[in-house]
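User: proline dehydrogenase, Exiguobacterium oxidotolerans:
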Amino acid sequence: MERVLRDGFIFLSQNKTLNGLAKRYGLKFGAGRFVAGDSLEASKRAIQDLNAKGLCVTMDHLGEFISTGAEAEMMTQECIRAVEMIAEEKLDSQLSLKLTSLGLDISDQLIRSNMERILTRAKELGVFVTIDMEDEPRCEKTIQLFEELRQSFDNIGTVIQSYLYRSEDDIKRVGRFETNLRIVKGAYKEPATVAFPEKEDVDHNYIKLVKLQLSLGNYAAVATHDDAMIEQIIRYAKENGIGNDKFEFQMLYGIRVERQLELVKLGYKVRVYVPYGRDWYGYFMRRLAERPANVAFVLKGMVKG
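Assistant: Predicted structure for proline dehydrogenase:
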């Protein structure tokens, strides 16, 4: 049943008609729990609140799969404004972004130019930028672009997804750059030819990848809400003399808030992924796909609405 729900939400996440309606009618029906408003100003207030509680942040202006250069320019300008806001407001925050929202599917020249503009401004202001990983067909292009950009910018990291067979090799591949990697399970529907179909295998590979990243001496952002996985990584770090400064835990905005604060009290860095913007629909559906239990929060939102 859980797999059916997951596949259903992933299918819905790709529906352009529903995405258009979501933009039109705003953050309703529970989405506000997972998205920090539709504007940069709204995200600032959410980040300030999280920082006051001892939580770090990575912010993301939602949007993906744009089709024109004008749209890519608009998203690029928004990323630059976000970086400037982080610096001006002295927020404890990084920036996350999706390459498809900046022109990845339009042209190699456009995406490279837009990324260089964002990274140049971010480097001037001391802001770290993470390239989010998207679906498997775009994985290789993402890794290649990261490798090119990393030669000129040291304020950049990327994401590795444990449900892909290729991920172990990718960690070793980018490890030479002493890369800061966020390790996630993955939230796209992929064929069994490229991804583990069973959750148990995805989970096993997740722990394997985090341990590999740490064993290489590189920084790991452990993005999970799973207590068993969190405890495994804490135990592994202690047993191998790996300091708390070599890894952090990352969780999504609006999910397991109390656990985030518990980890901070235990002396661990916790970074909250804070998305904002009008183009929230695809992100929201993938969060429901990752954890169908989140549907309960949506139903509560519908009742209150």
